[in-house]
Write a structure and sequence with these properties.
The chain is α/β, with parallel strands linked by helices. The chain folds into 2 domains: 2-77, Translation Initiation Factor IF3 (2-Layer Sandwich); 85-194, DsrEFH-like (Hypothetical Protein Ychn, Chain: A), CATH 3.40.1260.10. It is 39% helix and 23% strand. Helix 1 (13-24) links the parallel strand 1 (2-5) and strand 2 (28-34). Helix 1 (13-24) packs parallel to helix 2 and helix 4 (102-117) runs parallel beside helix 5.
Length: 196
């Protein structure tokens, strides 16, 4: 039985850590320890989506999530779903994720981009438009993550008009400059378009 401690980890790290542990586990039991209800629910939902039976035990402030991996329960279905999706494009039109508090929106966008690195099927292209172009500029806190995505083969494009509007053309550090025709063409050609 393997045990992983995810206490103190911010979302979505407990799920990502659980996914990695399940990927390494051929068959058997995994215990994931988290310290808040949201992480508990997220890990439980993920494990069940992978076809794994789950039991949860509360010990003090912590949740011990018992996950049982049985060979062949979900792997074939997941592989077929991934193979069906050929071209994935992510369209980002803001440097913030969601509406409301700017600090939270900035944190969520960084978490979203970091999570892309851990996906089994990474996007083929990441489109940055409007204030989303700030993410690829020299003062961006997401620059390291975008650079890693680029090194792993994700094509990152920024709208040239948007870079000019925000006076960031000379400060763009990752990816290439694109235009509206190219952006629309890649959106139309995508098998899956993600807009966070």
């Amino acid at each position: 039985m393997k045990e992983i401690d995810c206490r103190g980890m911010a979302c979505p790290q407990p799920v990502i850590t659980t996914k990695r542990a399940l990927d390494q586990l051929k068959e058997g039991d995994l215990i994931v320890i988290v310290d808040n209800p949201s992480s508990c629910e997220n890990v439980e939902r993920f494990a069940r989506s992978q076809g794994c039976p789950v039991n949860i035990e509360k010990k003090g402030q912590d949740f011990h999530i018992h996950i049982q991996k049985v060979t062949g329960t979900h792997e074939g279905k997941l592989t077929m779903q991934i193979e069906k999706v050929k071209k994935v494009v992510v369209y980002i039109n803001s440097d913030l994720l969601g509406g409301g508090d700017e600090a939270l929106g900035s944190f969520l966008m960084k978490a979203f981009l970091k999570t892309l690195l851990d996906l089994e099927k990474m996007p083929d292209r990441l489109i940055l438009i409007n204030s989303g172009v700030r993410l690829a500029s020299e003062a961006s806190q997401a620059l390291d993550t975008l650079s890693l995505l680029s090194k792993k083969g994700v094509e990152i494009v920024s709208c040239g008009t948007c870079l000019d509007f925000y006076k960031l053309r000379e400060k763009m550090c990752v990816g290439k400059i694109s235009n509206m025709f190219d952006i629309i063409q890649s959106m139309l050609e995508a098998d899956c378009l993600i807009r966070p």
